[in-house]
Design brief:
10 helices, about 25% strand, globular, alpha+beta
Length: about 375
């Protein structure tokens, strides 16, 4: 019998990609800057890191994707240094950099995220860790609980009063706040009087009654859900408060590594140490050596900070799902005891002077290393 002719498949068989496609999901305001050809250092460095790693990368916003049709338009950096919007392939890996939902965009944002997450590997499994959520989950692990300051959720002024009866000073922080915004410092003075200071303005008021402090705290936090946290007497450099930011990322083997470590030194008279509030950044070892006056002690303190950051990130993986980058905020107090302050799933990336000399800063190349790891893992699961 003659062989039956083979039926032609109307759908073209997809060729296996030789390299990963990375989509960077970002805010409409960020896309607006690209479309107007503004120089955005973060975007340029991400594209340069992707090119060096052999990855096809692009930016996109909510208006650039049609989830139902799996059609997406991305912003790519041309060889002439200009940004171009064009049709791009559906991604293998999603790098979600949206940390706050735009007003009125919650439903479309969730729709895009659900569609992307069903087909692409994720750099981070969750979009926000949340101060209280992160604290309460890490408290369940003995090897991280010992580094956590006393913290309670702020339901009403009685929580503030209770914490002030146990600690000389406390911080009231919005659960989902960032950049050091809307934080109140409250401390106990003599004769049942209190002091208060805002991170936003640096404004201080003293000799207040408790009812006055509670009112100022509510107003400063804009009635957001908040925590009350024991204030740590931070290590100081030249009279200014210091804490530590360690950028943790995953390498091409999927293991946590410290990517960049720096000391954040706050402005004089300011209790917060966030970059957005004018803090300076110094390489961690150099700052520790200057503060302690000892090379040996500086090396040991840096090593200890890296060790604890690694433990924290491994437990965050267990508690929240697999992550690819985390900004871990630690602090040494004046007795050199180490504390964990918080962790950030979408850390702002500020290069130190020495890191600017690198052809591709590790702060950006680590994401590309992890993208390759996820791509190979995805391809292996499909065989």
């Amino acid at each position: 019998m003659p062989n039956k002719p083979r039926r032609k498949n109307s759908k073209k068989r997809r060729r296996r990609r030789a390299r990963p496609v990375l989509a960077i999901f970002t805010h409409v305001t960020f896309i607006h800057k690209l479309s107007h050809q503004e120089r955005v250092e973060e975007a340029i460095l991400n594209m340069q890191a992707a090119q060096a790693a052999g990855i096809l990368a692009y930016y996109f916003g909510l208006d650039d994707v049609e989830p139902g049709a799996k059609r997406i338009y991305g912003w790519v950096l041309g060889s002439d240094g200009r940004w171009y919007r064009k049709r791009v392939p559906w991604p293998d890996v999603l790098y979600d950099r949206i940390y706050r939902c735009p007003p009125g965009k919650r439903r479309p944002l969730l729709k895009v995220r659900r569609k992307m997450r069903s087909t692409a590997k994720l750099i981070n499994s969750t979009n926000i860790l949340g101060k209280w959520n992160c604290h309460s989950r890490l408290r369940a692990y003995p090897d991280t609980a010992k580094y956590l300051p006393a913290t309670v959720i702020y339901r009403d002024s009685s929580d503030l009063r209770t914490m002030l009866s146990r600690h000389k000073s406390v911080l009231v922080k919005p659960v989902s706040g960032s950049g050091g915004d809307s934080i109140s410092l409250v401390w106990l003075m003599r004769r049942r009087r209190y002091g208060w200071q805002s991170s936003d303005t640096g404004k201080r008021r003293t000799s207040l009654r408790f009812s006055q402090v509670a009112k100022l705290v509510r107003k400063n936090s804009s009635r957001q859900e908040s925590i009350v946290q024991q204030r740590i007497p931070l290590m100081q450099m030249e009279g200014r408060n210091c804490d530590i930011r360690i950028y943790m990322g995953k390498d091409e083997s999927g293991r946590w590594v410290p990517v960049s470590s720096r000391m954040r030194v706050g402005q004089s008279g300011q209790f917060a140490t966030n970059f957005h509030l004018g803090a300076e950044h110094f390489e961690l070892y150099d700052a520790l050596k200057q503060i302690t006056g000892s090379v040996t002690k500086a090396l040991w303190l840096k090593k200890q900070a890296h060790f604890v950051a690694d433990i924290i990130c491994r437990h965050i993986d267990k508690a929240f799902g697999t992550m690819g980058e985390v900004g871990v905020d630690l602090a040494y107090d004046r007795d050199l005891r180490l504390w964990m302050l918080e962790a950030n799933a979408k850390p702002a990336k500020v290069l130190l002077p020495g890191e600017r000399q690198e052809q591709v800063p590790k702060l950006y190349s680590c994401i590309m290393d992890y993208t390759w790891y996820l791509f190979r893992k995805k391809r292996k699961s499909q065989t």
